[in-house]
C-alpha cells in the first residue's frame, strides 16, 4: 500500500468498516455472563445490537446451551438464518477455525480429515465470507498476555492455558487451494487471516498460478505466539507488503486491540473489536462488552473526521460477490505486477489499462 500526501485526510480515505466479534469462543460464558450469548435468541439479538451500534461485519461463532462452542453445522445454519432475517444487510463472516463433527452415526463417513473444514462452503444459508488461514502456523494466543489479562477468567486455568499455548492452525497448500476453490464456487468470499508477510507472498504465488482468483481481503492478526507482535514496526512492514488493491483490517487481543484500531482509523484501514478479542477496558477497572467497544470506535472515528461505512458501503469496500476469471485479472485488480511473459528479461510493471 502507498501513502501519498494527504493519505491521512479523511476525505481521501475509505469509510471505516467495523467488524464485530461478539461470540467469544475462547472464553466461557461465566467469564462475562452479561455479554456472552448462550441461547439462539441471544446470539441473534447480539448481532442486531452490534449492527445498530455501527458494525457492518459480524464474525460468527455459535454455542450450545451448555456454553461450549458448537461443532454442529445445523447450529451455524440456524444462526445465519436468524441473523439474515433480523439484519439482512449485515455481512456474515464465519470463523474458519471451526471444526465440525457429524450429527449422527450415518454421517460419519462424510466427515473425513480436512474435508470437514471445507463444509464451511456448504452452509445454508451461505455466509458472505469465511475466514481462511494461509500456511500452517503456531497460534499461541496467550503468549503475549499478562497476568492481569487472565486474572479471574477461564483462560487462566491451567488446562485451558495449556491447550491455547499449544494451539496450531493447519493451512497446508493442498487444503488451501481446495478451500478457496470450493468457497469461490459457492459464491463465498475468502477473508484471509494473516500472521505475517510470508503469507501474503504465498497468496501472491497462488494468484500467479491461477489458483486464487479472488480479491485480497485481509486481516493482520497481531497476536504474537507465532503471529506478528502488535507493534508499529511489524504493522508498517505488513502494510508495505500489501498490494494497492487489497483491503486491510487490523486484529489483536486484550489491551492491544484499541491502540491498533486507533492506528487503523488514522491510516485509513479497517477495524475489528469484540469480546472474542478483549473483555477489558484500557484501565482494567471493569469488563467492556462488544457493543460498547463498537460505540467507542465510532466515536473515535468521528473525532478523526472519518465516517463509518453503512452496510451497502461496507459490501462495496470488501468487494463482496467479486471473483476473477483468471490470474491476469486477479493480479491487476489486486495491484500486483503481471506475470512475466516468456523470454521477458526486464521486471514486469503495472500499467494502466
From TrEMBL:
InterPro entries: Aldolase_TIM, BKACE. It comes from Caballeronia arvi. Its cofactor is Zn(2+). The keyword Zinc applies. Keywords: Metal-binding, Transferase, Zinc. PANTHER family: 3-KETO-5-AMINOHEXANOATE CLEAVAGE ENZYME (PTHR37418:SF2), 3-KETO-5-AMINOHEXANOATE CLEAVAGE ENZYME-RELATED (PTHR37418). Residues 334-353 are annotated as: Disordered. This is PF05853 family protein. It comes from the Bacteria. The keyword Metal-binding applies. GO terms for molecular function: 3-keto-5-aminohexanoate cleavage activity; metal ion binding.
Amino acid at each position: 500500500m502507498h501513502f501519498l500526501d494527504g493519505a491521512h485526510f479523511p476525505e481521501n480515505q475509505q469509510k471505516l468498516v467495523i467488524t464485530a466479534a461478539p461470540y467469544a469462543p475462547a472464553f466461557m460464558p461465566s467469564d462475562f455472563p452479561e455479554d456472552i450469548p448462550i441461547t439462539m435468541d441471544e446470539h441473534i439479538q447480539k448481532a442486531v445490537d452490534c449492527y445498530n451500534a455501527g458494525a457492518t461485519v459480524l464474525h460468527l461463532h455459535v454455542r450450545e446451551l451448555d456454553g461450549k462452542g458448537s461443532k454442529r453445522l445445523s447450529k451455524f445454519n440456524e444462526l445465519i438464518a436468524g441473523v439474515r432475517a433480523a439484519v439482512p444487510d449485515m455481512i456474515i463472516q464465519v470463523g474458519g477455525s471451526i471444526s465440525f463433527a457429524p450429527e449422527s452415526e450415518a454421517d460419519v463417513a462424510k466427515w473425513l480429515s480436512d474435508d470437514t473444514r471445507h463444509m464451511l462452503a456448504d452452509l445454508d444459508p451461505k455466509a458472505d465470507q469465511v475466514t481462511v488461514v494461509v500456511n500452517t502456523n503456531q497460534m499461541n494466543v496467550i503468549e503475549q498476555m499478562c497476568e492481569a489479562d487472565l486474572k479471574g477468567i477461564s483462560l487462566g486455568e491451567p488446562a485451558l492455558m495449556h491447550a491455547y499455548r499449544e494451539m496450531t492452525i493447519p493451512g497446508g497448500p493442498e487444503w488451501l487451494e481446495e478451500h478457496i476453490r470450493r468457497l469461490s464456487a459457492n459464491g463465498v468470499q475468502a477473508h484471509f487471516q494473516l500472521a505475517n508477510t510470508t503469507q501474503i507472498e504465498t497468496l501472491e504465488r497462488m494468484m500467479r498460478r491461477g489458483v486464487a482468483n479472488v480479491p485480497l481481503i485481509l486481516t493482520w492478526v497481531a497476536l504474537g505466539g507465532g503471529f506478528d507482535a502488535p507493534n508499529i514496526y511489524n504493522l508498517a512492514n505488513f502494510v508495505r507488503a500489501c498490494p494497492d488493491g487489497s483491503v486491510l483490517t487490523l486484529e489483536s487481543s486484550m489491551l492491544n486491540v484499541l491502540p491498533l484500531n486507533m492506528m487503523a482509523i488514522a491510516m485509513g484501514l479497517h477495524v475489528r473489536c469484540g469480546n472474542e478479542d478483549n473483555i477489558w477496558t484500557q484501565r482494567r477497572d471493569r469488563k467492556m462488552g462488544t457493543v460498547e467497544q463498537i460505540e467507542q470506535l465510532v466515536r473515535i472515528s468521528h473525532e478523526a473526521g472519518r465516517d463509518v461505512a453503512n452496510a451497502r458501503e461496507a459490501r462495496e469496500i470488501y468487494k463482496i460477490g467479486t471473483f476473477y476469471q483468471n490470474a491476469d485479472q486477479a493480479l491487476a485488480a489486486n495491484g500486483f505486477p503481471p506475470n512475466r511473459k516468456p523470454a521477458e528479461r526486464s521486471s514486469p510493471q503495472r500499467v494502466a489499462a
